[in-house]
Amino acid sequence: MSAPAFVLEIRAWLLFLTVDFREIADDSDHPFLFKIENKNGRQIDLFLRKIGNTHDYPLDYFETGIERRVVLWEDLWHTKQDIIKSRLLAQLGTSHRIPARLTKVHRLDRPTTSRFLQENHLQSPTLAKYSYGLYLPVQYFRVLPFPEEFTASSGQEGGLLVAIATFARPRNFPRDHGIHRSFELVRFASLRYHTVVGGLDKLLKYFTKTHAPNDLMTYADLEWSDGQGYQKLGFEAQGDTLPHDFWVDPQTMIRYEPQRLPDGLDAQNAPQMGFIGIKNAGSRKFVKLIHPQLPKP
Fold this sequence. Notes:
The protein is α+β, with helices and mostly antiparallel strands. 22% of the residues lie in helices and 34% in strands. The protein starts with a helix and ends in an 8-residue tail after the last strand.
């Protein structure tokens, strides 16, 4: 059977990376699967989904024993290819590493946050009450693979913005021993093709010290992670959400949430206009209890 164009493009990219991989595809209804392994033994099951393919495969389709499983849709490959490649390289452990201990935390304004998320995060920027970033000072640019590329535009803080985390305003819940303040970690992103080692941990600790939450909650996108990284930071899984619906314009490959379709379109007439409906794999909720309320003496 002939592979879709985006599958051929991914195959060519993997060949360029000189990683070991094998391809599995059974029939025209079957999604493609690339089983990838780099020279250090890291493995990824890369599960490719073409828009319009209605064959539903559960995530347990992947064989057991593979730690990293990724579901990649055709539209995202076309519209956010650099970010996709960056995340896959991070999964393989081959992105450029920056020690978080070299960075400094700064509060970010909305334009800086929005621009960084647009360039480095798969999901669209969303409003958040608080945004903090890690800046790498100029004197540590030596850890970058091509420091001269960043020296001229090192940012207003005298360094390079290499990671950010955004948080929603707190939700307050009455408890027997006082008000329980819960904050949501909305977005976390690193500079494309770079991994800030310990970056999320550093930002969470700074946020906790600054705002004293009783707990932090967040969601892991099950198409990219089962949330093991959050568990290593003290979060506990609290259950999964249902798959989320999207509409894709096959001409532009732009993905829309149902409530954000172009003017004049809704779930009823979108198919008549050629839009294709897809469902993602859902999310997993994680909560980290930080400062539980203690009984009054």
